[in-house]
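Reopening this ticket.

The earlier resolution said the output was attached, but the attachment link was broken on my side. Pasting everything inline this time so it's all in one place.
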Amino acid sequence: MEYSIVKVIQAMLAPGIMISACGLLILGMNNKYSIVVNRIRLLNDEKRKILHLDKRMENDIRRENIIRVQIDRLNERVKIVRNAVFAYSFAVACFIISSLCIGINLYTQSDEVEVLILIFFLTGMLTVFIGVVLAANESLKGYKIVRIEIEELS
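Inline output:
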């Protein structure tokens, strides 16, 4: 069976929708990653300032402990964001490979290539799901960190 170049390109770009969706997810997670890292830096800076005070009051010690807890939790959070970004990036790679396999399969009509298409596409979808679960977990952890800040101000 002979295919035109346009049909080949159309078939290969079918997973492109998933590649675009993952790109948006990666962009959002990278933004969160930057925010979390900046927050860690700000808290570390604040902690350094407290440690350099000549006269330490009970309030300063309490604040230092709260900062330490926040930094620990932000460290957990940044690892989750990193893992979500990795999952989305891995999914993009799977979708690209499935797209290439679709192009190859249009010319070879190989059952083995069809199996590869299915495996890579489903692996990409599963990896996107894992990334979404990680992103949801990160949001919950972010909320808990905000609650620490709110409780401190109360």
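Reporter confirms the inline version is readable. The chain has a mean pLDDT of 80. The chain has four helices and no strands.
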